[in-house]
């Protein structure tokens, strides 16, 4: 039910190189104990400039993989950063800081910090910031000899127009809740059909004035508003506000509480005008189980995301559901409502308890309503406070207890982690077994007897995939990825499965799951060919989808259309298609396959309804109604093992992985650079490599740019124009490569460059000319592929035109963006770029 975006052949690449470490401090005769997880104890760190406090950071008790910690960015003003520390239960004994390169691999500077009244000035040497963004890590040491680490990107903020941008956002934020005062905001909005004016759950720059100003909800801010600067440069600033509001409820004297995220992207222009470039506000109602949360129809969830994660028992008497990182269980038969899991504590004023960098995911439900679930991300409080990882829990409805079965720590940030764990991690409470994939080996871990059994070995990347919750796994049983003829599909919850076999002279490969339906592709050995960038490929000519009964529910095939790649996102598969001309494959229009799987028939459903006050609301509806709308509220006890088996998984950063950030959050992880750029463009966001080199950034390039010094541009003997383009591009970045001497036959230029230099070649297929101008604006030429292995070199642009060098004639020409799009149409609008 959570949003995910994973490349078809590498659904959970983090597990491919996973390291499983078994704790040897395991007591086989362990005794469970009731745990009081207490309040958050780690201090928070924040930063200030003039009257603004922003970028409140949580502390991590393990050193994190820095390149995954790309969240906030903090300005360096006059060589300094003003820092504040808010202590909780732990007393800070000493503090220090370190500055690293943006990929986190090289330490550039370090020094101790002197805290005075929980504040400090961090000195940043000018030379450290000469090459752009860096990482700052602050370390706080405590009286108990423990320490916590705090991470943020930093950059020279002198050209951010920070005060003007922050003042504009504050003015908008302060006035949006007062319709009279908000009248001046109307000119900044862009109301259109793109806005959904049936709901307050998501409000955008395209929504109408009534929804932007909260209708008749009369919101009142509760507690502090957290300001996080997400992106900032001389061209624009992006800020995310996170806070809670109490709004007017539908009953007399009722109020409802909501979690709100409000995103602003603003620009201060050369003509000294402020512009609202983008705006996005989401609000999700908190469920508290109080009176009027259940009526004669069912459980009222209110204004929240329509994609509700829920499970139902077979009798249709018990439902478990997740709302705003809390797990609830409603037992209609016993008239009981249980708040199964939450880091929030209604009786505490500790804001860190409500830190939102984690998610709850349902795994399975027993017949009696007992529920297995996972909690992924940052641990706000308790035994693992300050760590990031995945906890597997079991809620026993009869004992009214929650038991943590295993904790799997990680050194990756929550946004990156949340795209990985459930993919190849599954726990079955009935058997007490955990299934994990490690380096192509599937292990069955018995958490009761503390044993490990090997089930499958020697799988390579792309040879296996799994469902969103991990209970379905499909893998190739024989051969390699392009010649395997058998696929085994396993249901880890039941131990049952089925096999898929290829036809004569064909091979099959697993692609992914759309919910519980398995998607695989079929290829013919005679269809081998090369792409516009020279990569040898064996595309699929057919896709098939089968349900859990091994029945074909969809067969996809089109004349002379082949499938090079599949991206799964939001229960939809995006097919990257190509047509063949001779031995060459060129990209053509995408196609889409959506989920048609119906939930098993039940008397419990998720429905929406509309109220005059709140617009569209969500409800868990009981077909036969609910007799008692005031159930008994239960709070289960949490039990943990005194000695508990601990697993660990992590992986190094890999080339060919791209992160897309938009609306202040990580929106997806992709293994296709072109698709990542498309998605970043849709969000007006940023696409970066796994080492945080920018591939695309919306709105942050000069309006015109030209690269003049290209060195030797002559095409050498035996060299294709594409190879010549890439040689020139790499030389401009300080890398000398001889393609004719070093590149093997059949090796793609992308793979070859990746093996030779620390930077990364980027195959940007199905992109517009405007999408690649960011790279040119950074001083790096881009190759535009015109078909049949030929290319021209893009060296500059203006507001409407792009300049290119024809290496065959050594002539420079200028065409419009649209004309260049037509020139590269034969290659499937493919460009090849490079980033350090």
- The number of helical elements comes to 10
> Terminal Cα separation, in Å?
36 Å
Helical residue percent?
under 10%
> What can be said about the biggest beta sheet?
7 strands, antiparallel
Q: How many distinct beta strands?
A: 58
The helix-and-strand class reads: mainly beta
Catalogue the unreliable spans.
1-34
Radius of gyration: 28 Å
Mean model confidence by pLDDT: 88
> What oligomeric state is this?
single chain
- As a percent range, the share of strand residues is 35-45%
Q: What's the overall geometry? A: globular
Structure, explained:
It is a single chain. The chain is globular. By secondary structure, it is mainly beta. 9% of the residues lie in helices and 44% in strands. The strands form 13 sheets. Strands 52, 53, 54, 55, 56, 57 and 58 form a seven-stranded antiparallel β-sheet that branches. The protein has ten helices and 58 strands.
Structure summarized in a few sentences:
By secondary structure, this protein is mainly β.
């Amino acid at each position: 039910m959570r949003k995910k975006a994973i490349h078809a052949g590498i659904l959970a690449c983090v597990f491919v190189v996973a390291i499983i470490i078994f704790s040897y401090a395991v007591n086989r005769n362990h005794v469970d104990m009731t745990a009081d997880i207490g309040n958050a104890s780690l201090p928070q760190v924040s930063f200030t400039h003039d009257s603004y406090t922003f970028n409140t950071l949580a502390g991590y008790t393990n050193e994190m993989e820095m390149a995954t910690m790309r969240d906030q960015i903090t300005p360096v003003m006059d060589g300094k950063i003003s820092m504040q520390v808010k202590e909780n239960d732990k007393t800070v004994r000493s503090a220090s800081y370190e500055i690293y390169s943006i990929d986190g691999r090289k330490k550039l500077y370090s020094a101790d910090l002197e805290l005075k009244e929980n504040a400090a000035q961090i000195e940043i040497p000018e030379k450290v910031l000469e090459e752009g963004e860096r990482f700052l890590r602050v370390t706080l040491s405590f009286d108990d000899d423990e320490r916590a680490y705090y991470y943020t990107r930093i950059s020279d903020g002198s050209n951010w127009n920070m005060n003007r941008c922050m003042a504009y956002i504050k003015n908008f934020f302060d006035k949006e809740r007062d319709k009279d005062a908000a009248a001046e905001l109307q000119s900044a909005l862009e109301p259109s059909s793109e806005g959904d004016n049936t709901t307050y759950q998501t409000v955008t720059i395209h929504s109408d004035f009534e929804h932007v100003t909260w209708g008749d909800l009369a919101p009142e801010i509760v507690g502090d508003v957290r300001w996080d600067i997400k992106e900032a440069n001389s061209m624009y600033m992006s800020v995310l506000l996170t806070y809670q509001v109490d709004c007017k409820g539908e009953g007399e004297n009722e109020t409802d509480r909501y979690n709100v995220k409000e995103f602003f992207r603003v620009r201060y222009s050369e003509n000294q005008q402020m512009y609202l470039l983008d705006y996005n506000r989401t609000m999700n109602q908190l469920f508290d189980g109080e009176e009027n949360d259940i009526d004669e129809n069912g459980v009222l969830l209110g204004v929240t995301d329509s994609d509700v994660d829920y499970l139902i028992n077979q009798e249709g008497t018990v439902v478990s559901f997740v709302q705003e990182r809390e797990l609830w269980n409603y037992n209609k038969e016993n008239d009981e409502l249980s708040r199964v899991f939450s880091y929030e504590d209604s009786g505490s004023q500790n804001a860190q308890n409500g830190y939102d960098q984690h998610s709850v995911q349902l795994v399975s439900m027993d017949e009696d309503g007992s529920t297995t679930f996972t909690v992924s991300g940052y641990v706000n409080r308790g035994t693992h406070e300050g760590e990031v990882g995945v906890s597997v829990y079991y809620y026993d409805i009869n004992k009214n207890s929650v038991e943590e079965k295993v904790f799997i720590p990680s050194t990756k940030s929550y946004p990156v982690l949340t795209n990985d764990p459930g993919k190849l991690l599954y726990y079955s409470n009935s058997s007490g077994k955990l299934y994990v994939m490690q380096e192509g080996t599937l292990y069955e871990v018995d958490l009761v007897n503390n044993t490990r059994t090997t089930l499958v070995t020697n799988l390579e990347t792309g040879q296996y995939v799994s469902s969103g919750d991990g209970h379905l796994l499909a893998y190739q049983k024989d051969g390699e990825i392009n010649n395997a003829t058998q696929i085994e599909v396993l249901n880890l919850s039941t131990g049952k499965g089925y096999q898929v076999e290829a036809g004569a002279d064909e091979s099959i490969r697993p692609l992914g799951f759309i919910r519980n339906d398995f998607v695989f592709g079929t290829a013919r050995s005679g269809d081998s060919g090369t792409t516009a960038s020279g990569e040898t490929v064996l595309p699929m000519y057919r896709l098939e989808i089968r349900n859990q009964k091994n029945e074909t529910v969809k067969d996809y095939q089109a004349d002379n259309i082949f499938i090079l790649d599949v991206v799964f996102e939001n229960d939809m598969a995006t097919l990257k298609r190509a047509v063949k001309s001779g031995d060459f494959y060129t990209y053509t229009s995408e196609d889409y396959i959506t989920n048609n799987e119906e939930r098993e028939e039940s008397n419990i459903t998720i429905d929406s309804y509309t109220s005059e006050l709140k617009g569209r609301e969500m409800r868990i509806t009981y077909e036969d109604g609910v007799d008692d709308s005031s159930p008994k509220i239960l709070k289960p006890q949490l039990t943990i093992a005194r000695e508990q088996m601990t697993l660990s998984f992590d992986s190094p950063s890999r080339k060919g992985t791209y992160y897309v950030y938009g609306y202040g959050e990580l929106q997806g992880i992709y293994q296709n650079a072109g698709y990542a750029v498309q998605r970043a463009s849709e969000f007006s966001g940023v696409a970066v490599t796994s080492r945080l080199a920018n591939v695309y950034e919306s709105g942050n390039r000069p309006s015109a740019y030209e690269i003049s010094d290209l060195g030797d541009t002559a095409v050498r003997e035996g060299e294709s124009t594409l190879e010549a383009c890439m040689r020139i591009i790499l030389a401009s970045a300080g890398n000398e490569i001889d393609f004719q001497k070093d590149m093997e036959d059949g090796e793609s230029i992308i793979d070859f460059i990746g093996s030779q230099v620390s930077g990364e070649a980027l195959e940007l297929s199905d992109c517009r000319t405007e999408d690649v101008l960011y790279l040119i604006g950074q001083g790096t030429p881009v190759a535009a592929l015109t078909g049949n292995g030929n290319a021209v070199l893009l060296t500059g642009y203006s507001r409407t035109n792009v300049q290119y060098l024809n290496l065959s004639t050594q002539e420079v020409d200028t065409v419009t963006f649209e004309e260049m799009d037509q020139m590269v149409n034969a290659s499937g609008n493919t460009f090849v770029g490079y980033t350090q």
